[in-house]
Specification:
Among the domains are: 208 residues, Immunoglobulin-like (Sandwich); 221 residues, no CATH class. It is 4% helix and 51% strand. It contains four helices and 47 strands. The strands form six sheets. It has a 24-stranded antiparallel beta barrel. A hairpin with a 4-residue loop joins β11 and β12. The longest helix is centred in the N-terminal third of the chain and has 15 residues. It starts with a helix and ends with a strand.
Length: 880
């Protein structure tokens, strides 16, 4: 009741407080029609057609000093014809010799640049951004003021033209933006939102045409307006992108293994396409897609019970991800990854790895083939956003060889994935009402060996977002449900998964049912906050996941059976003062319970930082997690009580404008009873010796000790023994990136990551009283006479002194070695059409050693025979 009273009081206070943000007068620019004399795109701005309209200026500093006059003047003009919008930007510069134009890959621009953003829907929520730097490097993105937005979406790659030129008075950018590449309603006279920004690199200064305070609760909502667009007919957009891939894989041959002959070759093709069905809706599709040029995931050793969340890297799935998205809880904590749609489920590695016997071999597919997928996305003039995706993945089979015979075994069934997202906005986007539905169906005629997978899985969600006082304050509610159906084997696996562990003997509020054939659950998040309009910001909320909630067929869920309240307060200083250009401070508090009413965690932290006037950045923080109960530590056994934990971290980065810059990042944590301690340090340097070349090196080292690391569970004479050990782990990694751009369209990129991790176990024990507050009573440490090394079995044998119980477990020590690299040559020989040349190399090794030795482990890593993949991918874009 006290918490409820506090929350209701905060809601009443927020409703009563005035908005502190200053409302800026809307600027209006009127474009002029130029048919049939369109400007030639060469960056010179010397054609008479540009004289039809006057230069527009009046830019104002956004940072570092709000509302001050910019250091250099900026002006622009806008024209249009029946097919394109033309934008000219003149960036005056009294020190033209210091203009910085760096060559890089698309969407990774550095140096002096300008950005033109159009709210062509005029919904005050969505902006299509077109940016270019002084060297002619493009960047394009979709900005969103939605509460669920995670920042600009740079996966959007429209086809547009731009040229730049530098002279003694500054530099110029000339853009041609086809109307086919943006979305707008079918109206006789258009009114669009408009913002133009300029970045002056040497002073790290940003100026805006339509001034927006840095504390404003949004971005697109505060744009100026573009008028004068009359008689526009949304053009038909049809883009077909067929491609061909030639692939050669070389690896070490294995004698007697018919699947490891040393090489594989393949030649195949596919088709990507985009069709504008109406002025509001676009159909994007792919048939037999290939993502061979996509960078590999970073290496890791995961000793937890939970699945690692990896970000999406495949172009088809990241484009438009802001539309087909239903994030349950915002922020950056453990709950922030939970989502109804996690595209990495599609095309995943097959979920069954068959056994071939002691003298057999298996040819296992690396990934599930995507037969085809389409997305229908857009927004109607009535404010209804929609995203619909349909994907079909293939029935995958592994090829087995044993005793002179070949056999096939299904390892992944034919599967259909469907997702639909709708969202209606009202009152210029101040209120939105949305819904989402996903459905996963697997072939019911699959083999019995795949009965551990659900036949069908459904999830749905509703969300309401309401803001007031010019979007300064907001209230958000998201609620979701799930239902999965399958065989008793599949549902038993679901109940016993690390997300819920229904078999826990100390959890009275859940029950394991071996005969169950369906499971349903619910979850959600309710929050209230102040997101702008002044220096003081806050958010408070409550989030929950019921024990039966299951999202992982098509979405991502880290943990069920949990509910949490959270409070955040932040203070921002955006104007330079004393030694600082800007600064901020955050306070956080949270605590959580399971659905049995037990408090299972609590904590809080304080963190802050900013930027000095010498352009160095810093951040620091210190926090404490209270005593907790872990339902996953014993992998299905009773909850384990863990001591409170202190943690701290810092980050320092030097001046990012310099051709040589560095960063240092460190973190430290330790439990109060000494059960665990961790220290991690990441450093890095970026070197830019010329405008076309960039090299970054980022080494990182982690060292940890954990007295209670799970090893195995043993069933002995009707009793369970949860075996743990003390682990000392060291991990060293180096991330290398090199970019060399010959032209804005031709680039060479290299990514490489050697990774070494070693874990040595000792002090083996079994759990006796997992919930004891007397830390030593939680386990029994094996004495010398109870534990013996069995050389023949390659593990440990146990004979308990008190009970006489005997059992064995394997040696858990490890040295994991891995190297992954990609070398990609990318040539966009005409807009939208690309040639890729790719060389990927992978080396992976494992040794049950446990001791870390840098020199020996590096030698062993690069003595592992590599797997090399060479790929040529050619695509051509047809615009019909």
């Amino acid at each position: 009741m006290k918490k409820l009273t506090f929350i209701m009081g905060m809601i009443a206070l927020a409703a009563a407080l005035p908005a502190l943000g200053q409302t800026e007068a809307k600027k209006i620019y009127k474009a002029s029609h130029v048919n049939p004399h369109a400007p030639k795109i060469d960056g010179r701005l010397d054609e008479p057609v540009w004289d039809k309209v006057a230069w527009e200026g009046g830019f104002v500093q956004f940072r570092p000093v709000e509302r001050e006059s910019p250091s250099e003047k900026t002006e622009f003009k806008i024209l249009y014809d029946d097919s394109n919008l033309y934008v000219a930007v003149r960036c005056w510069d009294t020190q033209a010799g210091k203009i910085e134009g760096r060559l890089s890959r698309r969407d990774d621009i550095e140096g002096d640049y300008v950005e033109v953003t159009l709210d062509s829907y005029f919904d005050h929520l969505t902006g299509f951004a077109f940016a270019v730097n002084a060297a002619g490097i493009k960047a394009d993105s979709i900005a969103s003021d939605s509460l669920n937005s995670n920042g600009p979406d740079y996966s959007w790659d429209p086809i547009w033209d731009v040229e730049t030129a530098v002279d003694g008075q500054g530099w110029m950018a000339e853009m041609k933006i086809p109307f086919s590449q943006i979305r707008f309603g079918n109206k006789e006279e258009q009114v669009w939102g408009l913002q133009i920004a300029r970045n002056l690199f040497r002073k790290d200064e940003t100026s805006l045409w339509q001034f927006i305070p840095r504390t404003a609760p949004g971005w697109v909502n505060f744009f100026g307006e573009l008028h004068g667009l009359q008689g526009l007919k949304p053009p038909r957009q049809v883009e077909l992108l067929p491609y061909t891939v030639a692939r050669q894989q070389l690896f070490r041959p294995v004698p007697g293994n018919p699947f490891a002959t040393g090489s594989n070759r393949a030649l195949f093709g596919g088709l990507d396409g985009k069709v504008g069905l109406t002025s509001d809706l676009t159909l994007t599709f792919t048939l037999n897609p290939d993502f061979g040029q996509v960078e590999a995931d970073p290496s890791e050793v995961n000793l937890t019970a939970f699945e690692t969340y990896f970000s999406e890297r495949r172009p088809f799935f990241i484009e438009g991800r802001n539309i087909i998205n239903f994030q349950l809880t915002g922020g950056d904590g453990d709950f922030s990854s939970d989502n109804l749609f996690y595209s990495r489920r599609i095309g995943r590695s097959p979920q069954l790895y068959p056994e071939a016997g002691p003298r057999g071999f298996v040819d296992q597919p690396e990934a599930t083939s995507i037969l085809g997928a389409f997305k229908l996305t857009g927004k109607t003039k009535s404010g209804l956003s929609m995203g619909i995706m349909e994907t079909l993945t293939a029935r995958e089979k592994a090829r087995l060889f044993g005793e002179g015979m070949y056999t096939d075994q299904a390892v992944e069934p034919l599967t259909n994935y469907f997702a639909a997202r709708l969202q209606q906005d009202f009152n210029r986007g101040s209120t939105t009402l949305g819904a989402m539905l996903t459905a996963t169906h697997r072939d019911p005629r699959r083999e019995e060996t795949l009965d551990f997978l659900h036949d069908a899985a459904y999830t749905g969600g509703l969300d309401i977002n309401h803001s007031w006082k010019n979007k300064t304050y907001y209230f958000a509610l998201r609620t979701v449900f799930s239902s999965v159906v399958g065989s008793p084997q599949a549902l038993l696996r679901t109940q016993q998964s690390p997300l819920r562990y229904f078999q826990r003997p100390d959890a009275d509020h859940v029950k394991l049912d071996p005969g169950r054939t369906s499971l349903s659950g619910h979850g959600g998040d309710i929050s209230l906050g102040k997101q702008g309009g002044g220096s003081l910001l806050f958010a408070l909320g409550y989030t929950w996941r019921s024990p039966g909630l299951e999202l992982n067929d098509m979405g991502y869920l880290r943990q069920a059976d949990v509910m949490m309240e959270y409070v955040w307060m932040g203070y921002r200083i955006t104007k330079p003062f004393s030694l600082f250009r800007n600064a901020g401070l955050n306070l956080n508090h949270w605590q959580g319970w399971n659905f049995g009413g037990e408090r299972i965690f609590s904590g809080g932290n304080i963190n802050g930082g900013g930027q000095f006037k010498n352009y160095w950045k810093f951040w620091f923080g210190v926090g404490r997690n209270g005593e907790s109960l872990s339902a996953s530590a014993l992998r299905g056994g009773p909850s384990l009580r863990q001591a409170a934990n202190w943690n701290s971290w810092f980050y320092v980065e030097t001046d990012s404008r310099k051709p040589v810059r560095f960063f240092l990042n460190g973190s430290l944590s330790q439990r109060e009873n000494g059960d665990s301690r961790y220290i991690g340090v990441d450093a890095g340097s970026t070197i830019v010796p010329s405008r076309a070349f960039q090299l970054s090196l980022s080494p990182g080292f982690e060292q940890s000790h954990n007295e209670l690391q799970y090893v195995s569970t043993q069933d002995v004479a009707g009793q369970k023994r949860y075996i743990f050990g003390a682990i000392d782990q060291k991990t060293l990694a180096l991330t290398m990136r090199l970019t060399y751009c010959l032209t804005p369209e031709l680039s060479i990129q290299f990514y490489g990551m050697p990774f070494l991790s070693a874990g040595r176990y000792d002090r083996f024990k079994f759990i006796t009283d997992s919930r004891s507050r007397d830390w030593g009573r939680r386990y029994h440490l094996f004495e010398s006479g109870e534990l013996a090394w069995d050389e023949a079995a390659g593990g440990y044998s146990v004979t308990e002194a008190g009970t006489g119980l005997a059992y064995a477990f394997g040696r858990p020590d490890f040295n994991f070695l891995q190297f992954r690299s990609n070398l990609v040559i990318r040539w966009e020989y005409i807009p939208g059409s690309t040639l890729f040349l790719v060389w990927s190399q992978g080396r992976t090794g494992f040794e049950p050693r446990g001791d870390f030795s840098f020199g020996r482990d590096v030698d062993n890593l690069f003595n592992i025979h590599p797997t090399n993949v060479f790929l040529v991918k050619f695509s051509y874009c047809f615009q019909l």
